[in-house]
Each structure stands twice: as structure tokens, then as C-alpha cells.
Write a structure and sequence with these properties.
Mean pLDDT: 93
Radius of gyration: 19 Å
Low-confidence stretches: none
Structural class: alpha/beta
Order of helices and strands: EEHHHHEHEHEHHEHEE
Strand content: 5-15%
Number of domains: 2
CATH topology of the largest domain: Rossmann fold
Oligomer: single chain
Number of strands: 8
CATH superfamily of the largest domain: HAD superfamily/HAD-like
CATH class of the largest domain: Alpha Beta
């Protein structure tokens, strides 16, 4: 069930979360990326699937306890420590080596056409994401980077949503007030936080889950607001 509360009439921009809204990891896991096990096994072939699972869980806890998105090498060191694998310079470099974004990520089917139509209508767009600094390059590799005028990235700003600085950075970059910006995230709590700060907001619930905040079930529903 979609919750369609009326959005303000003076909306000028959409602030998008990235993961879960614009793109998703092939294989379903964000961190570490899909080729992690293969890369580690090339250095240490004896690691078992059970060891990988436990180490990745430790990495999840480290990530969740960080006030901002941690340095990727620091994150890998935590996971490798739990594997009992030495985080050599070469291994860390291999884990972050450049790969085509399309090898590990994909956009949702409704993303590109919606972004094109928003752009055609003159809607300005930015990204507000808990992510590493390379996010704009990933978007560029997926063919969507040119739609966004600004990025508010947690690893760059040193804070994570729902810190008000995340939302404000994107709005300020567009020279727009909160009331002129519609924030879209797949986490209803982060949408609720944005609404409390004066932004319009919609939670993207692709599974049609009911939320306590205004929600949509697909990105093309944003076109009704512009």
C-alpha cells in the first residue's frame, strides 16, 4: 500500500539515497564487495566459508559502530584480522582494485528512465548517501552520474544520516531550501528525519511494505510531484 500524502507545490529537486534506491549489489551484499572471497583466497587458499561469514559479520559490527563511513582499508583490516590473514599492502590494494562498476553493481530497472524524465522536466537532482568517496565514479560507470549536480557522502563529510549536515550539504549545493527538496530513501527512519528537518520526503518501499511516513513503491511515482 502506497502512502501518498500531498507533497509541497514548490518542490524543485530530488535528493536521492543511492544503495537500495538507485542501485543494488549483484549477489545482494554491499560489503565487502562481491569479489572479496575470491581475492582473499588467491592470497590464502585455506579460508573456509564459515570463517568468511564470521569475519564479514565482524566487519558489519565495525561499520555499524562507526560515526562516519570508515576508511575502506580500515574496514578490510578488521575483516582480515578476524580471518587471521595479514593485511599486506598488496592484498589491500587487490581488494580495492578498480573493476567495472557493472561487474559488481546494477541499477534498478526503473532508475534510468525516471532520472531522464526528471531531468527533462527541469528537476534538479543530488545524492545523499552513506558511502565511500568513490560513489560518483560508480554512478558514472553505471551511466547515471551525469544526472546529479551534487553529492553528500558520509565518508567525505565525516557524518552519517540522519545527521542534519548530510541533508543540508546537498540542499546548499543546489542553493535550495529544505522545503524545495524531496528526499527519497529506502530507510523510512531516515526519511522521517528529513521531514522533521523541513524536507519533503518519500520512503521507497519496493516490496510494498506499509510505513509510518509517506511512501512510494517505485521511482516513477516521483513524476507526479513535478
Amino acid at each position: 500500500m502506497t502512502t501518498q500524502r500531498r507533497a509541497p507545490d514548490d518542490l524543485r529537486a530530488v535528493l536521492f539515497d543511492s544503495g537500495g534506491v538507485l542501485m543494488q549489489p549483484i549477489g545482494g551484499r554491499w560489503n565487502p564487495r562481491a569479489d572479496f572471497e575470491q581475492t582473499v583466497l588467491a592470497h590464502t587458499p585455506s579460508i573456509t566459508p564459515e570463517q568468511f561469514a564470521a569475519a564479514i559479520s565482524a566487519g558489519d559490527h565495525f561499520f555499524a559502530a562507526s560515526a562516519s563511513t570508515p576508511d575502506y582499508d580500515d574496514y578490510h583490516r578488521v575483516v582480515l584480522h578476524h580471518l587471521g590473514v595479514e593485511p599486506t599492502t598488496q592484498l589491500l590494494a587487490d581488494l580495492t582494485r578498480e573493476v567495472p562498476p557493472a561487474a559488481i553493481l546494477e541499477t534498478f530497472p526503473d532508475v534510468k528512465e525516471t532520472l531522464r524524465e526528471l531531468s527533462r522536466r527541469g528537476v534538479r537532482m543530488a545524492v545523499v548517501s552513506d558511502a565511500w568517496p568513490g560513489l560518483p565514479d560508480l554512478h558514472a560507470g553505471l551511466g547515471i552520474g551525469h544526472f546529479f549536480e551534487a553529492y553528500a557522502i558520509s565518508a567525505v563529510l565525516g557524518c552519517r544520516k540522519p545527521d542534519p549536515r548530510m541533508y543540508a550539504h546537498a540542499g546548499a549545493a543546489l542553493n535550495l531550501t529544505p522545503a524545495q527538496c524531496l528526499f527519497v530513501d529506502d530507510d523510512p527512519d531516515l526519511v522521517a528525519a528529513a521531514i522533521r528537518l523541513g524536507y519533503a520526503g518519500r520512503a521507497l518501499c519496493r516490496d510494498s511494505a506499509v510505513t509510518d511516513v509517506p511512501s512510494i513503491t517505485s521511482l516513477p511515482e516521483l513524476l507526479h510531484f513535478f
